Amino acid sequence: MSSETAQSNVQAPSQQQNQQSLLHCPISDAHINSKEVERIRQECRNESFWYRGLPLSLGSMLITQGLIYNGFLSSSPRFGSLPKIAVAGAFGFAIGTMSYIRICQKKFQRVGVQPLRPESERHCHHICKECEAKLGSNGKENVKSSAS
């Protein structure tokens, strides 16, 4: 009885190890350099701030101040025009930063990374020979059916 439970305990970790090896893709991860990804991430942060976020923020603040000055918007009696200008600046910055997402996606795709896809869509299409030998023909069919 105890030998049966010991064998089942040994089989369970090996099945978990096979599942983990299927989830990890050594072929697609081999060409991705983490320093390159970090460089692109930092570049996207800087460019989205300087090229989109800051200009739209300042522009929306100037337009809001112009609307308040011309009487289209009224200023607050207690705080003046500051709250409306601050909100306009925050919205301008947020919209400007978000508008740069597509450009950053293209930069990551050139390197081979799909950073903004849902986790459920990230899977490996490669099967190494070692995994294929471990799984046999049944495992290969299961992987193909789960990938579609």
UniProtKB/TrEMBL annotation:
<dbReference type="GO" id="GO:0005768">
    <property type="term" value="C:endosome"/>
</dbReference>
<keyword id="KW-1133">Transmembrane helix</keyword>
<dbReference type="GO" id="GO:0016477">
    <property type="term" value="P:cell migration"/>
</dbReference>
<dbReference type="InterPro" id="IPR040187">
    <property type="entry name" value="OCAD1/2"/>
</dbReference>
<feature type="transmembrane region" description="Helical">
    <location>
        <begin position="49"/>
        <end position="69"/>
    </location>
</feature>
<keyword id="KW-0812">Transmembrane</keyword>
<protein>
    <submittedName>
        <fullName>OCIA domain containing 2</fullName>
    </submittedName>
</protein>
<keyword id="KW-0472">Membrane</keyword>
<dbReference type="GO" id="GO:0034551">
    <property type="term" value="P:mitochondrial respiratory chain complex III assembly"/>
</dbReference>
<dbReference type="GO" id="GO:0009617">
    <property type="term" value="P:response to bacterium"/>
</dbReference>
<feature type="domain" description="OCIA">
    <location>
        <begin position="32"/>
        <end position="114"/>
    </location>
</feature>
<feature type="transmembrane region" description="Helical">
    <location>
        <begin position="81"/>
        <end position="101"/>
    </location>
</feature>
<dbReference type="GO" id="GO:0005743">
    <property type="term" value="C:mitochondrial inner membrane"/>
</dbReference>
<dbReference type="Pfam" id="PF07051">
    <property type="entry name" value="OCIA"/>
</dbReference>
<dbReference type="InterPro" id="IPR009764">
    <property type="entry name" value="OCIA_dom"/>
</dbReference>
